Every structure is written in C-alpha cells, then in structure tokens.
Amino acid sequence: MCFQKNVKVAVCGASGGIGQPLALLLKQSPLVTKLSLYDIVHTPGVAADLSHIDSPAVTSGHNGPENLKDALSGMDVVIIPAGVPRKPGMTRDDLFNTNASIVRDLAEACAKYCPKALIGIISNPVNSTVPIASEVLKKAGTYDKRRIFGVTTLDVVRSNAFIAEAKKLDPRKVNVPVIGGHAGITIIPVISQATPSVSFEKNQLEALTLRIQDAGTEVVKAKAGSGSATLSMAYAGARFAFSLCKAINGESNVVECAYIASDITESPYFATPIKLGKDGVADNLGLGKLSSYEQDLVQAAIPELQKSIKKGEDFVNKSS
Ligand code: NAD
Ligand code: LMR
C-alpha cells in the first residue's frame, strides 16, 4: 500500500494562548510538511516568527475570513482552538454564545475548502461544538463522522500526570483512558483500565476522579482571570495532531481517546479510545470493562451530554 509521507496541518485560532505554542510544537515536528496558521489577528507575525525555525514545515500566516480559502485549501488536518476561554466562576457552557458561531463559521470553511480534512476541535464547550461542526458539515453534504473529533487528550494527559504523581510512577509510562465528554461530570477517567494497573482506596479514587474532572477549573482559578489551560493544552493538542499525522502516514495501532459521533451509549457523541486510520476513526474500541463506580459515572454523564449535544444541534438547525 502507498501512504503519503507529507501532512499539511492548519491551526485555526493560531495567534491565541493555545494556538501559538501548539503551532510551535507542530513546526518542530518532521511529521508536518506544511503548517498553515489562521486567525482573525496577528498571524503574519506568528508565521514570520515560526518560519525562522530550521525545521521542514513550510509555514504561512492567514488573517481574517477573506483568507480562509488560502489557509485551508489542501489541508489534511485542521486543529481548531479558536474562541474565548473561561474566567473564574464560568462554566464551559457559558462560552457557548461566543464560541458556537466561531466554530460554525470555521466548519463551514472546512466544508468548502478542505472537505476531506480530519478536524480536531479544541474550542469549548467541546460537548456542544463538535455537534455544531457536525451539523454544519451535514448541511454542506461533506459530513463523514470518521473525520471529526473533540480533542479530549488533555484529560488523558492530566490523568496520567496525577496518577503517576500519586503512585510515584514515570508519567511517560502511564496511560489512563478517559471517556465521556469534556466538562465536569462528563469527564470519566477509567482508572480501572490504567496501565500499569493501579489501585486506590474508595475515597482516594473519588478524590482523584474529582480532581481530573475539575482540573480545567484548577487552572482557570490559578490564572485568576487571564485565561485557561494553554501550555498543557498545546502539548495535548500536538500529541493528538501527531497521532492523526501518523495515522495518515499509514502507521498502525495509533490509539487516542476523543469525543466522536458514537453508538456505544445512548449519547450520540461519546469519547472512547479510538484506533485511528488514514480516514480518521478506523475502529471505536468502546468502553471496555468498567468498574461499577465507572458505570455509575457513565450513567450520570449521559443526560448532561445529551443536553449539550441537543443545544449544539439546535444552534445550527434552528437558526437557519
Ligand atoms: P485565546 O483567547 O488565548 O485564543 C483564542 C484565539 O482565537 C485568539 O487568537 C482569537 O483571535 C482567535 N479567534 C477568535 N475568533 C476567531 C475566529 N472567528 N476565527 C479564528 N480565530 C479566532 O484562548 P485560548 O486560551 O487559546 O483558548 C481557546 C479555546 O480553547 C477556548 O474556547 C478554551 O475554552 C478552549 N480550551 C479547550 C481545551 C480542551 O481540552 N478541549 C483546553 C483548553 C482550552
Ligand atoms: C480545560 O479543561 O482546561 C479546558 O477545557 C479549559 C477550561 O475552561 O477548563
């Protein structure tokens, strides 16, 4: 079989707190041959700066909606961290009013200029923005459920870090699947499936689960009004983008958790571990064996996910 060895990646929201370090990490990688940076501000400067790094990715900057065609045409992967972040006291859903239309418009542009791209959405509320983008692509006639992902890799990265810390393990060797969605109780770390295998007393397990679910808020509070996680998100977003690139290049056994269209539970979108292929989702690896505690977490998450999904779908379908 002949697979491509060059992957063109676009970042939409490339001048932001996540966008800039994410672009830096992507620029460093030999997996990326073209790096297209789109934002409504500052992309010429960010692109000029990055283009002086002696790595292969040819970097270009594109400012404003009139340049979306140049930014997106021919892209294989589009990562979207465009939109406003939380301030203390806000929920991710409080960002809906601003970010829903940003994601809608970017999804419309993807449908037009790179309909076969694999799209990773970072913009919150992820539980709703992925359904928004999906409905837009359905309307445009370019929807392929294998190609659109809510990026939940930061939840995995955090779970790995916190469990490694608690058990004094090398964090690079820890892997914890995180399923469900990306907000509060919808974030479900499956600690019973962690590798290496770990065990905790009930109250310690509950405290760890809660910390993982609230980790975004922990950063929002610590940043005290200046935004939410950016550096750890850039790291996680780059990891996810590299996995997409590897899958496009024909590497086998590339597995990541992500929030995707799913029939694994009664929620039409649900994050689970996924085997990635050149067209995106190759195999949904499902829930695996859950403890009774984790099964209860799934049941609690489903109604909240359904509500956020409907809100996103209604935003697209009832406003046109
Ligand atoms: P930021 O404000 O620093 O950057 C956002 C960037 O988006 C800005 O450069 C802005 O100009 C740009 N932007 C706004 N409207 C745009 C449009 N129409 N097209 C293109 N770009 C546009 O915010 P940030 O800290 O980078 O966070 C971005 C988003 O990522 C937020 O919604 C945040 O909640 C979310 N986030 C998600 C996760 C996750 O795990 N999925 C983690 C952290 C943050
Ligand atoms: C995170 O988990 O850090 C992000 O979703 C940002 C946030 O608002 O918490």
Task: Write the CATH homologous superfamily of the largest domain.
Answer: Lactate dehydrogenase/glycoside hydrolase, family 4, C-terminal
Structural class: alpha/beta
Mean pLDDT: 97
For the termini, the CA-CA separation is 44 Å
Query: What integer value in Å does the Rg equal?
Result: 19 Å
The molecules bound to the chains, other than polymers, are: nicotinamide-adenine-dinucleotide, (2S)-2-hydroxybutanedioic acid
Helical region count?
10
Number of domains: 2
Large-scale geometry? globular
CATH class of the largest domain: Alpha Beta
Largest sheet: 6 strands, parallel
Helix/strand order = EHEHEHEHEHEHEEHHHEEEH
- The total beta strand count reads 11
Main sheet: strand order: 3-2-1-4-5-6
How is the CATH topology of the largest domain named? L-2-Hydroxyisocaproate Dehydrogenase, Chain A, domain 2
Beta-strand residue percentage: 15-25%
Fraction of residues in helices? 40-55%
CATH architecture of the largest domain: Alpha-Beta Complex
Unreliable stretches (pLDDT < 50, length at least 5) are none
Domain Lactate/malate dehydrogenase N-terminal: 7-150
Protein name: Malate dehydrogenase
Family: Belongs to the LDH/MDH superfamily. MDH type 1 family.
Subunit structure: Homodimer.
